[in-house]
């Protein structure tokens, strides 16, 4: 298991948990933190025991964005999981891309303030569950800079162009109930229920047929660029992979035996 300073990472019962762990700074992100996030996502990708990834923040905030107070020297940064020329050429701003392209389902459990690059990190996840105390902001405009870390790509796709531009033009803080109304989050729960509720959702996904789930995530992403006929043919092609799994046999058998299936992810 890799050693991290800015995050906590663990895998239990099929759930990989990535917790931003600088509560004294509302989990603000340095480049070293991003390197740790990238490394943890790579670890989850390579671990068949990790069926779903949950990202959250320690303390009272999810993430306050970029750590503008960091004085850490580059020699002290956590190493990125990219070697050679790829590491030399790959933008450090692409950490959210790695999260978005993770083959495993991803859930952001947003416990408090979620702004700037931290907002982009939450947007990169497949689903967002928010505490009633959560607040969201594309705060970049308040610093007179262009939104980054993928915000201009993720946000219009999630809430639509007008709502996305409204958030990016104003940098206004969006409370949890409004985030739910505009489709920014899928659920809002009381603060003391966020962890248990997110865990229950993650566990439901983790006990599912993970090969089929990962392929459906891939298909959903590809559908944004594919014409319908190509998408249908790709569905048919990838379904052949699921037909070769033990889970397909279990799915059919459980139907015949009128019981709930017990999937093993293989």
Q: Outline of this structure?
A:
The protein has 266 residues and is α/β, with parallel strands linked by helices.
Features:
6-stranded mixed sheet; 11 helices; 2-enoyl-CoA Hydratase, Chain A, domain 1; 266 residues; alpha/beta; single chain; 2 domains
Task: Report on this structure.
Strands 1-2-3-5-7-10 form a six-stranded mixed beta sheet, sandwiched between helices. It has a four-stranded mixed beta sheet with strand order 4-6-8-9. The two termini are 24 Å apart. It has 266 residues and is of the alpha/beta class. The chain is built from eleven helices and ten strands. The chain has helices at residues 31-46, 84-89, 95-100, 116-123, 151-159, 161-170, 176-181, 194-206, 210-222, 228-243, 246-256; strands spanning 7-12, 15-20, 52-57, 61-63, 106-110, 113-115, 127-131, 135-137, 174-175, 187-189. It is globular. Strand 1 (7-12) and strand 2 (15-20) form a beta hairpin. The chain has two domains: 7-206, 2-enoyl-CoA Hydratase, Chain A, domain 1 (Alpha-Beta Complex); 210-256.
CATH architecture assignment name of the largest domain: Alpha-Beta Complex
Q: What spatial form do the alpha-carbon principal axes imply?
A: globular
The proportion of strand residues reads: 15-25%
Strand order of the largest sheet: 1-2-3-5-7-10
Order of helices and strands: EEHEEHHEEHEEHHEHEHHHH
- In CATH, the topology of the largest domain is named 2-enoyl-CoA Hydratase, Chain A, domain 1
CATH class of the largest domain: Alpha Beta
| Proportion in helices | 40-55%
What is the name of the CATH superfamily of the largest domain? 2-enoyl-CoA Hydratase, Chain A, domain 1
Structural domains: how many: 2
Distance between the termini: 24 Å
Sequence stretches where pLDDT stays below 50 over 5 or more residues: none
| Separate helix tally | 11
Question: Main beta sheet: strand number and arrangement?
Answer: 6 strands, mixed
Radius of gyration: 19 Å
Number of strands: 10
């Amino acid at each position: 298991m890799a050693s991290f300073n800015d995050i906590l990472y663990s895998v239990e019962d099929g759930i990989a948990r990535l917790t931003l762990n600088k509560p004294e700074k509302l989990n603000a992100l340095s480049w070293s933190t991003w390197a740790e996030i990238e490394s943890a996502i790579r670890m989850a990708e390579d671990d068949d025991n990790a069926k779903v990834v949950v990202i959250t923040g320690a303390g009272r905030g999810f993430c306050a964005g970029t750590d503008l107070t960091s004085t850490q020297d580059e020699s002290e940064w956590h190493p990125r999981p990219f070697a050679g020329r790829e590491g030399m050429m790959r933008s450090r701003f692409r950490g959210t891309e790695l999260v978005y392209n993770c083959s495993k389902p991803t859930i952001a459990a947003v416990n408090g303030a979620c702004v700037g690059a931290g907002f982009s990190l939450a947007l990169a996840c497949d689903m967002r569950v928010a505490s009633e105390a959560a607040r969201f902001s594309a705060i970049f405009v308040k610093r007179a800079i262009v939104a980054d870390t993928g915000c201009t790509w993720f946000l219009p796709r999630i809430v639509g162009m007008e709502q996305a531009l409204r958030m990016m033009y104003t940098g206004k803080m969006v409370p949890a109930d409004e985030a739910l109304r505009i489709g920014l989050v899928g659920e809002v729960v009381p603060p003391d229920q966020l962890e248990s509720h997110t865990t229950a959702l993650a566990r439901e996904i983790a006990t599912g047929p993970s090969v089929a789930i990962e392929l459906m995530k891939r298909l959903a992403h590809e559908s944004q660029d594919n014409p319908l006929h190509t998408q249908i043919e790709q569905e048919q092609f990838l379904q052949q992979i699921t037909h070769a799994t033990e889970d397909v046999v279990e799915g059919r058998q459980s139907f015949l035996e009128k019981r709930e299936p017990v999937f093993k992810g293989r």
